[in-house]
Amino acid sequence: MSGGALGDRLATLLATVFGVGYSPVMPGTMGTLAAVPLAYAVMGGGAPALWLTTAAVAAAGTWAAGRYCQLTGKHDNQCIVIDEVAGYLLTLSLVPRTATNLGLGFILFRLLDITKPWPIRLVDRRVHGGFGVMADDLLAGLVGAGLLRLAAPHLPALLPPWLGGAAS
Known about the structure:
Elements: H1 3-15, H2 27-43, H3 46-72, H4 82-91, H5 99-115, H6 120-126, H7 129-151, H8 155-158
Helix pairs in contact: 1-3, 2-4, 3-4, 3-7, 4-5, 4-7, 5-7, 6-7
C-alpha cells in the first residue's frame, strides 16, 4: 500500500468519523450523536481539556475534510461529519458536564448547523476547502456555546424535575 492510499484511507476514516457519515439517515445528526461519548469523557477534564480536544479534532478534521473533498470531487460532502464533532465539542466548552447541558448543547448545535443563521451561512458559502468544511460548524459551535452559557443558569427553573430542573 502506498503512502497516498494510506493517507486517503485515514482521511476517509477521520472525515466520516469511522463510517458514521455514511448513515443513510441524517448523517450530520449521527455524527453529532457519535460525539456525545467523547464530549462526556473530555468534559471531565474541564474547559481546557475540551478546548484542546476541539482544536485537535478541528486540525485533523480540516486536513481530512480537505483530502476527502479532493477524493470525492465534492465540497462539503454530506458524508463528512468530523466537523459536527468539533462544533458540538465547542458548543459545550463554557458549561459544566451535565446531562442537561449535553442534551441541550446537542439540540442547539444541530439547530444552528441545520438552519445556518447569519453569519454561519455567510461562512458556509464563502469559505472553501477543508477549513471551509470545518469553519461553519465551528462558528455554529461558538454561537451555541454562548447561547448555552447564557441559558445554563436559568435551566433548573425552566425544566421539569425529571429533566434535572428544580422541583415546583
